[in-house]
Records
---
Amino acid sequence: MKNLSDSFLSLVDYWPSAGSFGFNTNILATNPINLSVVLGVLIFFGKGVLTGLLDNRKQRILSTIRNSEELRRSAVEELEKARDRLRKVEREADEYRVNGYSEIEREKANLIHATSDSLEQLESSKNETLRFEQQRAINQVRQRVFQQALERAMETLTHCLNSESELHFRTISANIGILGTMEEITN
């Protein structure tokens, strides 16, 4: 401690007298005074400027926070809207899927029904064609049977007529002979 008091006493020897003006080149003696003066001036004059700067910064930070909150709120709203649209689109997709499946089933049933109707029509047409061909065959057989019966009848008739014509010829000849005799008798 004695060293410290000795250093202060030695500093007093270097201080200029009170009546003179000049620069003190002793750094240890002048720095605390200068610093306190500078700090006092800065605090006195800079307090308003510093307060204004801090208030402006505070207002910008608060404004940024409010803007961020509004952006977050609008982003949340947009997200909810997007989720609603997604749910709606998913419902519509499910409806289309269900309707598509039912439409496919309906088309399948219609196709099966149409094919069944076509097969029935083909079967009916086939049966009608068979009946027509059968009737035609029956008619041809009838015509042949009728033609053969007619030919036999004609043969029988011709044969009968030949026999009868001979009989008629004899009858006529006999009658002519009787008439010839009667004429002779009457003459």
---
Amino acid sequence: MKNVTDSFVSLGHWPSAGSFGFNTDILATNLINLSVVLGVLIFFGKGVLSDLLDNRKQRILNTIRNSEELREGAIEQLEKARDRLRKVEIEADEFRVNGYSEIEREKLNLIDSTYKTLEQLENYKNETINFEQQKASNQVRQRVFQQALQGALGTLNSCLNNELHLRTISANIGILAAMKQITD
């Protein structure tokens, strides 16, 4: 340390002989050179360094502001998406409920129409049975009537003579003609 102070002291006392020499003390000369370079750098580089730091600070602040704006925009979009999701879920629930009620309504309508169809088929069946019973009854009556008529004709033919037979036929023809006039 004594060498350092000696080198500063020796700067003030230069010999007037005008000789130029080298200081061989490495530590003393390096410290002087470094202090001079640092002083020049600080004096001239202070503005440049502060400008660089200010620019860097502004870029960082701008990046933070942009990030905050993007974050706020993302939060808004997220809220909008959540609102849309809630609305869609509500609509889906309404469609589901309406769909279920519509299905139930269609099911009841189908059951009602099936019962009505079955009722109509039952009515048609009963009408067909009644018609077939009447038809069979009419056929049985016709056969019974024909057999009775044939039996009566057979009895009449064996019991009647020709004159009585002709009067009976004429009377029956008159009855049939009167029946024909009534039906017309």
---
Amino acid sequence: MAMAKNKTQCFTCNKNKITYPCKGCSKEFCLNHLTEHQQILNDELNLITNEFNEFKQTINEQKQNPHNDLLIKQIDQWERNSIGIIQQKAQECRKIVLAYSQTIINDIKNKFNNLSEQIKQIHQENEFNEINLNYLRNQLI
């Protein structure tokens, strides 16, 4: 009786041998190449595991020291820049207020001197009524 044909072509060596299917890639391998194929898969799994562990370590480092994060550094720089801009604008506003205040003070001083002269004149003449008093009060306000 003839032996059953149970040999198929190995994907790697292309020889007709007893082969074993890999359900992941749907290819047939002889025993030697199936072992090699499995080792290649193991190596890939190890690479993935190493990448995962490196990523996990990076995440843990970020949790322990969040100030090293690039976004945090950018926010800190933005904060410093913003403070500088605000301080510069505040200084410009102070200069404007001081200049404007001096103008207002000079104007008030002139009005004050004029009002003072009017009050002296009223005292000297000793002639005034409610209308004069209301006028002086309004000018003072």
